Amino acid sequence: MEYVSINSADDLEVYEEVGRGGFGIVYRGIIKHTQQEVAIKQIDLENDTSDINEIVKEIQIISECKASPQITHYYTSFVRNYKLWVIMEYIDGGSIFDILKPGGISDEQTISIIIKQILLALQYLHNQGKIHRDLKSQNILISKTTGNIKLTDFGVSTQLSSNFSRRNTTVGTPYWMAPEVIVNNNGHSFKADIWSLGCCAYELFSGKPPLQNNYSPMKALTLISKCRKDQDFINLIGISQLNCSIEFKDFLTKCFKENYQQRYSANKLLQHNFITKYQHDGNLVKQLITRKQAWDEKNQDVKSHHFYIPTQVQPKQRNSSNNSNIKWSLEDDTLTPKQNKYLENIQPEFNRVLTKVVNKLETRNNLTSEQSELLSLLNENFNKLLCFVEEGGNNNKIIIFQYLKYFLKELTKENDNRIGQLLQKLIIPSNLIRSDSTTTTTSNRRPRPTGNSVPGSPQISTTKSISPASSSPVYTTQFDEIENSLLNSWIEKQHLKTMGVLDTAQCSIPDLYNLKYSLNSTSSINSIRISPDGKTFATCSSDTIIRIYDLLTGTLIAQLQGHTKGISDIVYSPINSNIIASCSDDLTIRLWSIQSKKCIKILRKHTYHITRLKFVSKGNILISGSADETITIWDITSGRILTTLAAHSDPVSSICLTPDNSMIISASYDGLMRLFDLETSQCLKTLTYNASHGTATASTNDVLNFPISNVEISPNGLYILSSSLDGLIRLWDYMNNKVIKTYQGVEGTPISEHFNCGTKFIIKTNTPKIVSGSEKSGVLVWDIQTKEIVYQFNNGNDVVFEVDVFDQGRILMSCSRDGIINVLELNEKYIKREQEDEDITQTTRDGTPFEKE
User: Fold this and answer.
1) φ and ψ at 760, to 5 degrees?
2) Mean pLDDT value across residues 486-497
3) CA-closest candidate to residue 509, choices 793, 853, 841
4) Is the dihedral of CA 268, 269, 274, 279 positive or negative?
């Protein structure tokens, strides 16, 4: 490796952004005195302190990999203005992910040449006891001049003490993850990289990694984790149907061995016939770069150039408010510094205990993926409850354990209540209950502690009886038979909870909205939007038709047809209710005149389906988010692309704009939200949820950061509302990088774990509220401060995909997968009641409308 002399940032010129990851933004740079190109990764140490260990780990690993020509070289690193600069070798041809945008590679020799070089890099890493853990097309680079392949991005790599060691953490990117990494019961070794290599080989041939064409990231995780035999995954991705050679199919099957011990190593795969039969030819790989350049020109793929200019979120944004008469004073739900410190000290041991508990549950029960996810959520809440001790007092007992102790005590008390007995029967195993071999009796007193008992813990005595047939202990339950009516009542209540139905008596405002009317459609409705003038509303669906209705009567007044595939989103022009934009799986965006029922413009650029659209307030600029991981900004008059933002490492699921149109906020299945300056296209912030601290950090751990499905900004521009596929909605104070409120579904159930369900703010009422669609519970409305579900509307059992509001929430609309449209109106009685309350407490709008928590 050639010697590169760089002493400080003054020796460098920083040019355009060339990529971004969880740990920072990568720029192309020039060493001033040699004019040599370098890659400069910049990490904001002020916002990303929780990832310092991972950053140091990446630097350590790449600095130790100097002998491999297939791994990007590390030069130096230093800190400037609270940013860590990591200087590395610059690879000018882009990534495998980039060159596959035109499609897969049909020439197997080219695939073999690329895979061989990746194998050489893995061989080098594995021989040194290192595993990459995030091998994917975005982390494999190509040299434009030589056609050589380089492995990069070691932010989640790790060092193994020996090749028999296995890591017990879940890291990676869903479509490329090995089953043992997902299930993560017994940890994983370097063979996890081999599975990811197989996914890359499949991606080179087909253009997409396994399962991505048909399944969301979370669904893919579930399907991979359910594979038990080698043939399960091979059949799932259809290897036998691939139009390729027998050698290539066999190579893939060797990578996709379900049992990692039977999976080929890098050394062994280098001897495979698919690798040895071809000679190296760098020109074949360079032709891929030429193919990508031609494709860019044809598809007008204009890259945005982000020059390094340190910026912050504009101060004016703090004062932006379209509703200045409403005060938003929200109490922070996150932990105090003392609680955070306490958590950090005790958490490692607690996590060890929880891991053992979960492993025992998984060993003795056939847990579903849903149950496993609920257990993960329970563990997260346990961790939070660990921190709440009595500060300054002598009693520092942890609340969660005190709760469990008293719960078990109450459970084992003599209880004539039949429901109580049923609970006892369901929770306590029958082999812990006193019995004899022929009769069933209930003890009249709690048993006394035995000599080896723990003081203060519940004691349950047992009596053995010997069965003549088996000559072994037999245990029977102490409970009488419970009447069928009682059991049926219990089951019915549990069923209602499972279905997400909340008893209206539990809603504090059950009359919040009145149903005006409902409409039934023959197909699933993906989105619903109310026009700016409030006279019409529009729906779009998978049947390729946009339908326009009269809002007052629900009468169908127009149908717009032209898309060739399903429509995912629609949006009215904010200045002209006669103009509407739509995006479709046919990869086009169309602008329509409702009056003439004609398409007036077609915009093309995206390579994968388009997920969301948003107009700026002047109506002259349209913003689109796509599954190709980009955000595109369009000039509506000319149809020209103003800029394209390389926003995320997974599909963009949602976008919104601040009220003053200064910032774009994007959300993605990579678990991140990013804030971009609309004028300069610079990324101002990256937000992702850290469960321990409730703070915004950057991370490459795509699995632990649950995919974010929807994002909405408050009318005053100060708060962000995010929905994620862990089934929760979070309210962010994004200026201070904090999650301040977390909202759950009915009885703590997930709001939505599989679908993008829309959210909106309601400010027509005295205290702000939020409304969301859900997977099982219909339309839910929460009090923004107390987090209580104050209203539920559920007249169907299917997913509510989208909600929209008009006049600050006076009109509320929803659409669902079963084709039902509901139009609700804020109850006049309720509005009058709040106005009366306001007369009594006039200060609520001048001061804070929320009680302190």
Assistant:
1) -145, 160
2) 50
3) 793
4) negative
Chain segment 373-403, per-residue pLDDT in tens: 677 677 767 666 666 544 444 445 566 666 7
User: Among candidates 748, 233, 689, 815, which has minimal Cα distance to 498?
Assistant: 748
Per-residue model confidence as pLDDT tens digits over 292-333: 888 877 664 333 332 333 333 444 343 444 444 445 556 666
Asked whether residue 186 is assigned to any structural domain, the reply reads yes
Same domain for 55 and 201, yes or no, is no
Per the CB < 8 A criterion, the answer to whether 510 and 518 are in contact is: no
3-class SS of residue 50:
helix
| Closest alpha carbon to 202 in 111, 120, 101 | 111
Between the CA of residue 823 and those of 539, 706, 781, 805, what are the distances in Å?
13, 32, 15, 10
Do 136 and 256 lie in a common domain?
A: yes
Are 434 and 462 in contact by the 8 Å Cβ rule? The answer is yes
State yes or no: is 586 an active-site residue: no
Exposed e or buried b for every residue in 677-706, given b needs 16+ CB within 10 A? Answer: bbeebbbbbbbbbbbbbbbbbbbbbbbbbb
- 807 φ/ψ sector (left φ>0, alpha ψ -120 to 50, else beta): left
Q: How far apart are CA 583 and CA 569, in angstroms?
A: 6
**Of 48-62, 148-162, 213-227, 421-435, highest mean pLDDT:** 213-227
Q: Which residues, in sequence order, are bridge partners of residue 41?
A: 26, 86
Which of 796, 800, 756, 755 is CA-nearest to residue 781?
800
**Alpha-carbon gap, residue 720 to 419, rounded angstroms:** 43
110 in Cβ contact with 279 (< 8 Å): no
CB 328 within 8 A of CB 716: yes
Q: How far apart are CA 115 and CA 270, in angstroms?
A: 9
Please state, in angstroms and rounded to a whole number, the distance separating the CA atoms of residues 348 and 169.
13
Higher pLDDT residue, 679 or 48? 679
In a domain, 305, yes or no: no
Domain of 15 in residue numbering reads as 9-89
Do 37 and 6 form a contact (C-beta atoms < 8 A)?
no
- Mean of the pLDDT values across residues 186-205? 83
Q: 283: domain CATH number? A: 1.10.510.10
C-alpha 702/C-alpha 457 separation (Å) is 41
217 in the same domain as 176 = yes
Instruction: Kindly state whether residue 439 falls inside one of the protein's structural domains.
Output: no
d(CA 447, CA 217): 52
**74-88, 462-476, 639-653, 810-824 — which is least confidently predicted?**
462-476
Domain end residue (candidates: 299, 317, 341):
299
Q: How far apart are CA 548 and CA 503, in angstroms?
A: 35
Amino acid sitting at position 264: Y
Q: Is the pLDDT of residue 454 over 50?
A: no
pLDDT reported for residue 761: 93
Same domain for 15 and 64: yes
From 51, 98, 134, 670, active-site residue: 134
For 110-123, b/e burial (b = at least 16 CB within 10 A) is bbbbbbbbbbbbbb
Contact 19, 646 (CB under 8 A): yes
Contact 73, 88 (CB under 8 A): yes
Q: Of 122, 124, 123, which is closest to residue 139 (Cα–Cα)? A: 122
Query: Into how many domains does the chain fold?
Result: 2
Residues 122 and 234 in one domain: yes
List Cβ neighbours of 29 (8 Å cut-off, separation of 6 or more): 12, 13, 14, 15, 37, 38, 39, 40, 87, 90
Which residues sit opposite 644 in a β-bridge? Answer: 632
Say if residue 76 is in the same domain as residue 197. Answer: no
- To the question of pTM greater than 0.70 for the whole model, the response is no
3-state secondary structure of 432: helix
Choosing from 251, 267, 299, the residue where a domain stops is 299
